[in-house]
Prior knowledge:
mainly beta
Amino acid sequence: MNTIVNVRWFDGYLEEFEAAEVRFGSDLLWMRLANGSNRHIPMRQVRWFSVNPESHEKVRSIMEAQS
C-alpha cells in the first residue's frame, strides 16, 4: 500500500507524491516513490508536509471494508 505525501514548498507550490516508504527527521524528508526512485527533500525548503494515511491511523483492508 502506498502513502500519499503532500509537500507545501516555501514558494507556495503544493506537490503530491505517491511513496512506498517515507522517512523524515529535522533536516530531511526521504521518500521511496511508487516508481522505485528515491526523493530527498531538505526540510529547510518546506513550509509543511502531510502524510496520508497518518502513522497512527489504522487502515482497513479491502476485504474488511466489504464485510
